[in-house]
Amino acid sequence: MTIKKRSPAYLLVEKDGRLIDCGGKLSAYGIQGLEKGVPIGSQVLFLDSLLPLDNDPLFLSCVKAESGLSADIHIFPGDKGDWILLLDARTEEIRRCLLQQKSNELSLLRKKVSKILDPYVRKGFTEKLLQGVLSFQESGERRDVSILFVDIRGFTWYSEENPPQVTLQTLNQYLSTMTQPILDEAGLLDRIIGDASMAIFGVLPTTGSFPDQAIRAAVKVIKNVHDLNKIRKLDNQPTFNVAIGIASGPVTLGIFGSKGFRTFSAVGQAVKRAADLERQARPGQIVIDENTFKKTKNFQSLFSGTTLRLKGIDRPVQAFSCEVK
Amino acid sequence: MIKKKICMLGAFAVGKTSLVKRFVKGIFSDKYLSSVGVKIDKKKVIIEQQEVDLLLWDIHGEDEFQKVQRSYLRGSSGYFLVVDGARRATLNTAFTLQKRTEETIGKVPFVLIFNKWDLKDEWEIDDKTMDDLSKDGLMVVKTSAKSGQGVEEAFLTLTREILEA
């Protein structure tokens, strides 16, 4: 844009602060009724603190006084005094405003999301969130994911028969054994409800196929639990098995809840189906839905077909199960 | 009439513009609008029967893309370092800005404002941190541009310090 199109205006101010001369489109910047010979600081307030110049020129971008346009202000020393050149900065202001607003809003959202996810997500993933690798609409977004439900079978009975301290210690031992494989496979631990957990695959950044990752995590969870059980048996402690259900499909992702309690979660048929499949699974078994079976690239051979009756569905549903030794 | 220039400094979205709006116009908006460049407002205050014209330079927030221009600071009599109590990182930004300001205009009075007191439940900065900063000799004020709490106190405190400097 040429200077002419940027509503140029100028002021010439003596070193003692009095206005010598002025011209151009000063009214565009809210500057009117200037009197020569009168100190400029009392006429144009924002200049009061800037003048007189030492020797070096001064540049201030996008300055907006109480009224008038946003201006780029160039101040430079001359023989008679200091020259002040004002140029319309609206184009630059709009450009920067658009970029800055978007970028700052995104930063605030990332901060908010990472705060919510922090307790659940391995540190590295939170950092990725902050770097902008992961993004989703805070107001809600529909996305294909795999949902995994895992439950420790028989634990409710155990919790009723044992002191709270013993129950919690045992539960935490099993949960930590189960959690790591989920995090290792880029699963997002969505919730832990007592002795059951739900994880979402396909939200956190990863290069792998999320149905495969969900199954791989499930196999590892059961194997880890087997290993833990071997140790507990040696100590004559009771052991438990877990049952896992996995379903895939579109869900709504977002931050749910009201002020004071807001959490990231997923809602949809796949969530409900995964929970139903987990209830049908036997200890040590993984049951997956047809969507997950079709999408899995590496694990189809592990599973055998079966039909199940799920709550609220009249006809039998095709599912696939796998026993992990 | 005494005229004093005060700069509002801090990270983006800490509430600098909201504090000025609350102090000058008595209004508040929940909507976040990022500031570009600098917006200059004026407010007359009376300190011990003395009228002072405050020129409030609301300077855009410091973020990863744009640093505060040193030229904006020229001629400042004092400044506010504004921190969002719910974002601990904004305290670090405030100290970075304090260092840069001192390098540019030397030592002038400043007040450290912990804003967004209305969101106290979400704060990442605890009372001990603020007490420690006070004990170190910093002037610390907790404010809420939303409710108005502490806003007037912050501006009057800084003006008094400037007049006494």
Overview in brief:
The complex is a heterodimer of chains A (325) and B (165). With 325 residues, chain A is of the alpha+beta class. In chain A, 33% of the residues lie in helices and 30% in strands.
Largest sheet of chain B, in brief, is: 6 strands, mixed
Q: Biggest interface, and residues per chain?
A: A-B, 30 and 30 residues
Mean pLDDT of chain B: 93
Quote the CATH topology of chain B. Answer: Rossmann fold
CATH topology annotation of the largest domain in chain A: Alpha-Beta Plaits
Strand content of chain A: 25-35%
The SSE string of chain B, one letter per element, is EHEEEHEHEH
Give the assembly state of these chains. Answer: heterodimer
Tally of separate helices of chain B: 4
Helix content of chain B: 25-40%
Binned, the helix content of chain A reads 25-40%
SS strand fraction of chain B: 25-35%
Number of helices of chain A: 7
Uncertain runs of chain B are none
Shape verdict of chain B: globular
Structural class of chain B: alpha/beta
Characterize the structure shown.
The complex is a heterodimer of chains A (325) and B (165). With 325 residues, chain A is α+β, with helices and mostly antiparallel strands. Chain A has 2 domains: 3-88, PAS domain (Beta-Lactamase), CATH 3.30.450.20; 136-323, Alpha-Beta Plaits (2-Layer Sandwich). Helix content of chain A is 33%, strand content 30%. In chain A, strands 6, 7, 8, 9, 10, 11, 12 and 13 form an 8-stranded mixed sheet that branches. In chain A, strands 2-1-5-4-3 form a 5-stranded antiparallel sheet, covered by helices on one side. The radius of gyration of chain A is 33 Å and the shape is elongated. The mean pLDDT of chain A is 84. Chain B has one domain (2-164): Rossmann fold (3-Layer(aba) Sandwich), CATH 3.40.50. Chain B has a 6-stranded mixed sheet, sandwiched between helices. In chain B, helix 2 (89-105) links the parallel strand 4 (78-84) and strand 5. Chain B starts with a strand and ends with a helix. The chains are: A alpha+beta (325), B alpha/beta (165). The interface between A and B is medium-sized, with 30 and 30 residues. Strand 3 of chain A pairs parallel with strand 2 (38-47) of chain B, so a sheet runs across the interface.
